[in-house]
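Quick check before the chapter quiz. The format below is the same one you will see on the exam, so make sure you can read both the input and the output lines.
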Amino acid sequence: MLLHTRTTPAERRRALRARLAEPRLLVMPGALNPLSARLIQDTGFEAAYLSGAVLAADLGLPDIGLTTSAEIAARAQQTTRVTDLPVLVDADTGFGEPMNAARTVQLMEDAGLAGLHLEDQVNPKRCGHLDGKSVVPRDEMVRRLRAAADARRDPDFLLMARTDARAVEGLDAAIDRARAYVDAGADAIFPEALADEAEFAAFRAAVPVPLLANMTEFGKSPLLTTTTLQNLGYDIALYPVTLLRLAMRAAEDGLRTLAADGTQESLLPLMQTRTRLYRLLGYQEYTEFDAAVHDATLPPGT
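Here is the expected output.
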């Protein structure tokens, strides 16, 4: 992997579709930046995710709809450039009316992503595990999804619908919405903030397309194991903010230690080594490529 991926966006979209057709749970960690997406690939995972909450936090913003579609697409393109994994992105509400949702789909296609999810919250939205959420009428979300589906140019680009209705209207209403969203063109469903294992099972029994289970920490849903989710018949286990939380806790602890001790010496065993970082970045491959360029000679007569 030198300067770019070895695969095309179309290949990665087909790979995600094929993987979701298998009867195995797909574990999908959330990247916090392009380098962490490379790490997700290097440690053996098969797909990565870009969380709207993480992208907002990276800009020092709360997850309340302050980011723009262009900001998300730019960060996504930086990420898809460095990983051969299919990447799914959080596209919030589509950043506006149905026409905005349609444009968002094409922006994310152009950014090299394998798919996105749109949610049925009002715009501006809020984190799915906070109280006080509001959802748009079901018909409005259906229009949003139809516009998105019509705008899609690559049929393999995954269009997922997220419903936040469980916390607002109850489980039955959330299931009814999910079915309507599938009819409107959604390829998969993301039921947000389910309350317990029984609700995850009820959703699986009622909705016949791939389902995503959001295993975000400190939220309203229980942290079910991958074995449990596999047995429940879920297709994706999502860990959207895990890496950000780990990294920020480690960074905060490190800063406090540096301030207290006046040296980072005690932190060295906790750090990624220079060797490991350079291996992850492909320093050796870049060196070999650069040497080959500089050592190249033209054949006679050219």
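If your answer matched, good. The mean pLDDT is 93.
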